[in-house]
Amino acid sequence: MNKMNKKMEYALMALKHISGKSDQDLTSAKEISEQMHIPFEVMAKVLQALASRGLLKAEYGASGGYVLARPLSEVSVHGLSEMLEGHVALTKCLGNDEPCEISGTCNITSPISNLNKKVQEFYKSVSLSEVLHV
Amino acid sequence: MNKMNKKMEYALMALKHISGKSDQDLTSAKEISEQMHIPFEVMAKVLQALASRGLLKAEYGASGGYVLARPLSEVSVHGLSEMLEGHVALTKCLGNDEPCEISGTCNITSPISNLNKKVQEFYKSVSLSEVLHV
DNA sequence: CAAAATACGATTAAATAAAACGTATATAAC
DNA sequence: GTTATATACGTTTTATTTAATCGTATTTTG
Known about the structure:
Chain A has 134 residues and is mainly α.
């Protein structure tokens, strides 16, 4: 129940790291992965995901790297997890892609849906700048 | 990030089922597992866990079963997940049993701890009666 | 052109969760 | 008392999910 995954941890570490630098100072995936002792390939993918969703801006080529594209105060924890994982929900059946095998006899369809909504609202209410103290 | 596990789902289903009956009407693990199409052994363990933590009262023998021991308004979602999983936290490093391999270079120790506290407070604020509409 | 960076699909490995198995114990019905 | 049915609980196996690795392409600086 309710555990954070590595992608999320790595993303928070990277954002904390990047937000401590000036806008002209690019940060490479290698730089973060080495300083934080995180596998390079995994860190790179996390940064790519954040860049493709518009939170970071990527510069190609040698001496390239990433820089913040939006202020962290504008992005919530929920927003970040959506950038990394797409649709986020308490259970698979809420994603409506898979109808769930026991949906015919399930007696908590509505309760789960309501709780899910509450949880999402909570995570939407917490900004990244608040979490990271930046 | 933030997914509910099966134990939790099964527990909510069982509590919803049990709470719809009178205090004299015992509910067996078999009854719930068959009606909800949940593996009997798994359902049985969930009920045992809830009984050992005082949320349910167990009656032995033929015609035995479970009955609510405490009102659901007194127990939170956080409380329920603790009954099923013990210590609950966003990350393993917060459980302080395992010190985490990158703790020396981790730059989000305090942010994670603060976020974890907020999340726990949120889940403590939601009662089971509220979730289950009982 | 060579070096160093992002981009991204595919595969493999590790960790976790879920389910199944086996046995013991308690109690009601007969 | 014997049988049937229930809880109790530790162990093992299987399935699923997550994390990490591999391989290759593209871009840009020097």
